[in-house]
Design brief:
The complex is a heterodimer.
Chain A: E1 8-13, H1 17-26, E2 35-40, H2 48-56, E3 61-66, H3 77-95, E4 102-106, H4 112-129
Parallel strand pairs in A: 1-2, 1-3, 3-4
Helix pairs in contact in A: 1-4
Chain B: H1 3-14, H2 20-30, H3 32-37, H4 43-50, E1 69-75, H5 81-87, H6 93-99, E2 100-104, H7 113-117, E3 124-130, E4 133-135, H8 136-148, E5 149-155, H9 157-161, H10 174-185, H11 187-196, E6 207-210, E7 213-216, E8 220-225, E9 235-237, H12 244-260, H13 348-357, H14 371-378, H15 384-388
Parallel strand pairs in B: 1-2, 1-3, 3-5, 5-9
Antiparallel strand pairs in B: 4-8, 6-7
Helix pairs in contact in B: 10-11
The chains are: A alpha/beta, B alpha/beta.
Chain lengths: 138, 408
C-alpha cells in the first residue's frame, strides 16, 4: 500500500500570505505538493463554514494563514480571525477531530521560507495523524 | 387601541397638570441613551410590542357538503410541544373538526397505523409531521404517511433541522452508548440496576419471545435524521414550537386550497419566516458594546431594554431567521436559534460563532500575545458546539461525531 498522501486546504490572505506563498514559489523552495491554496481577501474572510465544509468534503487538514498581528491590511481582520479559529477549533474538537487538523499561522509577504516550513511541518503532522476520521454518510 | 394603551392613557390623565413638566424632565433623564442611539426602540415601544395580540387571521372555513378533506398529524422524535402548539390556536381549534377529518393524531385522536395503511394512496390531503426521525417506527410511519398524502408539512424545529434529539449524534458510540448511559450510568437507574439486577443489567430489547408470540420495540438509529432526509417534504414550518399565527395561517391556506382552489406557495417554501434575522424584529436597543465574559440571564440583572449580547448573554439572534416575533428576547431570554438559519447560509452554528467571536474586543496587547491567550479569552464560551448547534445539528455540514483512529 502506498503512503498516505493527505489533502490539505490552505486559506491565504490576499495581502500577506498569498504573496508569501508566491515568494516561496519564486524562490523555488521545496515543499510537499499536498495542499491546495484558496485566496481570500483577509483571514477574517474565512468563515468557519468554509473550514467545516472543507472537512465535510474530506480534507485531512485545514490551514488558515494571515498577516502578522498589527500588520493586517484591514487593521483588525486577523484579530477577529484568531478569535474565530480558537472557537472553531473547540468545535471540531467536540466533533472528535484532532484539533491539530486546523492550524492558524501568520505569514507575511516576505516570509516565503516560513510558508515552506509551516506547510512542510503541517503535512508531517497530518501524515502522523492519518486520514480524516470522517466517513461516508457523516 | 389595546387594553394596555387605554390603561396607560387613563393613568396619565389622572396625574395633575402641574406635575406634567416634572414628569417630562424625569423621563428625559431616565432615557438619555435610548434616544441618542436608537430612537425607534424605546422602552415604550418594547412594552407596546409585547402586548400586541397575535393576528390569527380569519376563522377556518367549514367543509363543503361534498365531503371533508383528511388531515393527519404525526408525532415522531419530539417532545410533544408541537402537538400542543397545534391546539394553541384559540377558538379555531373548534373549527378544525369542521374543516377536516382528523384521520390520525396520536395525542388527540384515535386513528391507528393500520387505519392509515388501509387508506388509498393520496387520500390524505395534508400530513403535518413533527419531530426528528430516530427509530424504525418513526421511519415506517413517515414513509407511510408520505405515500398516503398529497402535502407533507415538516412541522417544528426537530422535523426541519433535527432539533435537540439530533444532539445525540454527538455521542461517539451511537445508540449503544446512549442506552448504556440512560440505563446503567444515570444515578437513578444505576441504583436500580445495582439493587435489582446485580451484575446483569437489564436493557430494553428490540425483540422478545413471549409464549403468545414475538414482541418488538422500534430500533434506535445511530444518527438522528431530519424529516426531509427520509422523505420528500413539501413545506417547512420551523420553530420550537412554531408561532400560533403561523399555524393558523397554514391551516387556513390548506382549507382554501382544498375547498376554493386557491394556489399554495411553491414547493419547498419555509412558512412563517422573513428574509431578515431575528435582530430586525427584536425591540431591544443596541449599543454595540464589546463583551469579555459570557453570563447566563440568571447571573445578572437583565436590562429590559438593552440588547442581550451587549449584556454578555449569548444570543443567537444575529444568526437566526426572523419570524418568531422575537418572543424570547422580549422577555429577557436569549435566542437559542429554533427558527434555523437565514436563506443565505447553511450553517447556523458557524454563522453564530462568527458573529459572537467578533464581539470580543481587540486588546492592547493583542499584537504581542500568543494563541494560548486567545484560547483563554474564548474559553468563556463553554460548549460552542452544543450551544450554537442546539437546533440544527441534523442539518449541519458534519452531521455526527467522528473518532480519530490514530496515525501510523
Amino acid at each position: 500500500m502506498s503512503e498516505f498522501e493527505p489533502k490539505i486546504v490552505v486559506f491565504c490572505c490576499n495581502w500577506c500570505s498569498y504573496a508569501g506563498a508566491d515568494g516561496a514559489g519564486v524562490a523555488r523552495l521545496q515543499m510537499p505538493p499536498n495542499f491546495r491554496i484558496i485566496r481570500t481577501m483577509c483571514s477574517a474572510r474565512v468563515d468557519p463554514e468554509f473550514i467545516l465544509r472543507s472537512l465535510a468534503k474530506g480534507a485531512d487538514g485545514v490551514v488558515v494563514l494571515g498577516c502578522h498581528p498589527a500588520d493586517c491590511h484591514y487593521i483588525g481582520g486577523n484579530y477577529r480571525a484568531r478569535r474565530r479559529i480558537a472557537l472553531i477549533r473547540m468545535v471540531i474538537e467536540q466533533y472528535g477531530f484532532d484539533p491539530r487538523r486546523l492550524k492558524l499561522e501568520w505569514v507575511s509577504a516576505s516570509e516565503g521560507e516560513k510558508f515552506q516550513k509551516t506547510l512542510t511541518d503541517f503535512v508531517g503532522t497530518i501524515k502522523e495523524l492519518g486520514p480524516t476520521p470522517l466517513q461516508e454518510g457523516n | 387601541m389595546s387594553f394596555f394603551d387605554r390603561f396607560r392613557k387613563k393613568s396619565t390623565e389622572t396625574v395633575s397638570n402641574a406635575s406634567a413638566a416634572v414628569k417630562k424632565e424625569v423621563k428625559k433623564d431616565s432615557k438619555p441613551a435610548a434616544s441618542a442611539t436608537c430612537p425607534s426602540k424605546t422602552a415604550d415601544s418594547v412594552a407596546a410590542a409585547q402586548l400586541k395580540p397575535a393576528d390569527l387571521g380569519d376563522l377556518l372555513p367549514g367543509a363543503p357538503p361534498n365531503g371533508k378533506i383528511n388531515l393527519a398529524i404525526y408525532w415522531a422524535a419530539g417532545c410533544g410541544g408541537c402537538d400542543v402548539s397545534l391546539l394553541d390556536v384559540n377558538e379555531r381549534i373548534l373549527t378544525i373538526g369542521d374543516m377536516a377529518n382528523i384521520v390520525m393524531w396520536p395525542i388527540a385522536a384515535d386513528g391507528k397505523e393500520q387505519d392509515i395503511a388501509a387508506m388509498a394512496d393520496g387520500s390524505i390531503t395534508v400530513s403535518i409531521i413533527n419531530g426528528a426521525v430516530r427509530n424504525t417506527e418513526n421511519e415506517h410511519m413517515v414513509k407511510l404517511l408520505r405515500k398516503k398524502s398529497v402535502i407533507v408539512v415538516s412541522y417544528g424545529s426537530c422535523a426541519c433541522f433535527g432539533g435537540s434529539p439530533a444532539l445525540a449524534n454527538l455521542i461517539p458510540g451511537g445508540k449503544d452508548e446512549l442506552l448504556d448511559y440512560a440505563y446503567n450510568k444515570v444515578p437513578s437507574t444505576a441504583n436500580f440496576q445495582a439493587d435489582y439486577h446485580k451484575g446483569k443489567p437489564v436493557l430494553p430489547k428490540t425483540e422478545f419471545k413471549a409464549p403468545e408470540g414475538v414482541l418488538t420495540l422500534p430500533v434506535l438509529f445511530d444518527t438522528v435524521k431530519t424529516l426531509d432526509q427520509v422523505i420528500d417534504v413539501d413545506y417547512y414550518v420551523p420553530g420550537c414550537p412554531p408561532l400560533q399565527e403561523t399555524i393558523s395561517h397554514m391551516l387556513k391556506a390548506v382549507a382554501d386550497f382544498a375547498y376554493k382552489g386557491v394556489a399554495l406557495p411553491p414547493k419547498g417554501t419555509t412558512i412563517g419566516v422573513v428574509a431578515k434575522t431575528l435582530c430586525d424584529m427584536c425591540p431591544r436597543r443596541k449599543e454595540y458594546r464589546r463583551i469579555t465574559k459570557i453570563v447566563e440571564p440568571h447571573e445578572i440583572d437583565v436590562d429590559p431594554d438593552l440588547c442581550l449580547m451587549d449584556q454578555g448573554i449569548l444570543c443567537l439572534g444575529p444568526a437566526t431567521v426572523g419570524g418568531c416575533n422575537a418572543r424570547c428576547t422580549r422577555v429577557g431570554q436569549p435566542c437559542r436559534g429554533c427558527y434555523g438559519p437565514t436563506v443565505a447560509v447553511q450553517e447556523q452554528g458557524a454563522s453564530a460563532l462568527t458573529a459572537i467571536a467578533s464581539l470580543f474586543p481587540v486588546l492592547e496587547e493583542d499584537a504581542t500575545m500568543g494563541e494560548d491567550s486567545i484560547i483563554d479569552i474564548m474559553s468563556t464560551i463553554k460548549d460552542p458546539l452544543g450551544y450554537f448547534y442546539a437546533y440544527t445539528m441534523g442539518k449541519s455540514l458534519i452531521k455526527r461525531s467522528v473518532v480519530e483512529k490514530g496515525g501510523k
